[in-house]
Amino acid sequence: MTVHQCHRTTGLPNVIGCIDGTQIPITAPAQNEGDYVNRKSFHSINVQMHSNVSSIITGEFDGYLLGDRGYPCLLTPYPDRELGPQQHFNVAHCRTRARVEMTIGILKSRFQCLHKHVTSLWHVLFSIILQLLEESTFD
């Protein structure tokens, strides 16, 4: 999806998509165990992804990315809700950013291994590949 297609969909010029993160639970590692405890007090790795407004995970960076307030170097919502252009931007921003959250939800729904305590990222990737291979043999 191009910047122009995204603009037609969202009303936001030069936006290519959104970025967000999700926690993937892991088994506590033997080394640096405390580094993997998240704010909800369980062991995890933070996986970030960027998707366009069509919920396609992409690596394109030829425009602006939208993010929540956790990404201060990206386009984030205005903190004060004033009527007019700022409010319109915040509404468009919220609607557009919901796409990446939906993409993460779709991914976690499709690949249940992302909910289990895994021992490594390789385990997650192997589980996803294995599931895709199993699904392709039944098509």
Automatic annotation (TrEMBL):
Primary location: nucleus
Cofactor(s) annotated in UniProt: a divalent metal cation
GO cellular component: nucleus
DDE Tnp4 domain: residues covered: 63-118
Subcellular location: Nucleus
UniProt keyword annotation of Nucleus present: yes
Pfam families assigned: DDE_Tnp_4
Family annotation (InterPro entries): HARBI1-like, HARBI1_dom
Stored PANTHER family: NUCLEASE HARBI1-RELATED, PTHR22930
Protein name: Nuclease HARBI1
